[in-house]
Amino acid sequence: xxxxxxxxxxxxxxxxxxxxxxxxxxxxxxxxxxxxxxxxxxxxxxxxxxxxxxxxxxxxxxxxxxxxxxxxxxxxxxxxxxxxxxxxxxxxxxxxxxxxxxxxxxxxxxxxxxxxxxxxxxxxxxxxxxxxxxxxxxxxxxxxxxxxxxxxxxxxxxxxxxxxxxxxxxxxxxxxxxxxxxxxxxxxxxxxxxxxxxxxxxxxxxxxxxxxxxxxxxxxxxxxxxxxxxxxxxxxxxxxxxxxxxxxxxxxxxxxxxxxxxxxxxxxxxxxxxxxxxxxxxxxxxxxxxx
Length: 291
What we know:
- The chain is an alpha/beta fold.
- About 30% of the residues lie in helices and about 30% in strands.
- The chain is built from eleven helices and 15 strands.
- Strands 1, 2, 3, 4, 5 and 11 form a six-stranded mixed beta sheet that branches. A five-stranded mixed beta sheet has the order 8-7-9-6-10. A four-stranded antiparallel beta sheet has the order 13-14-12-15, covered by helices on one side.
- The two termini are about 25 Å apart.
- The relative contact order is 0.17.
């Protein structure tokens, strides 16, 4: 199976992919294809150069990854799984702490360490990269450069860990989603392990109201509430049409094959301008991961 991941070797996306593969994929012969940015992962799927992609969706400190949300709307993909990775940011470099003038990382990495950087390196130049692993690779070029990346990345690129655990919050986790091209989703799912029923199912969808009217969003949420369907996440994102116009990303407990879920989604479909199903898939359950 060909699996597209964000970043070079040692990235958090690679870690997420390996974590999900270990639990779900039957075959041992899996090839990771490393991408320079999130959009490239979607492009590989679109061009059928990979079978699945693993991309970050949201972080417990910095919130959602906007690029991923936009591409889930724009591209013809389905979500077939998710996994959550503990993020442990370290300051990596070839040089010494007092020599650091430039610090590189993915925008999410810099954001998750914002207070640390302001307090510890107030004069350092901050540069964004496509991934934390790419930042680590660039940091090998000059001793005055450092990267914010995982401790595993230090081993990959022969960098020293100048400071460990530098994120602003102790509990730092990123949720990654596993995506496929919609035309290959069924065949990919059939190739995965089917016997594991530990994880409860989750369904993700995108809704665009199309017309602003009193109670429009409430009517949608009310449909789920009346059927006792738990929404685990709802988030608005600009539609990019006009200012103040939004699409809504919704995650809920349950499988689209469940009658109650199917009926609720059918009922709201007639009252919205657009409804895109992203898929039903086993949600991440840490107790299952430990078994």
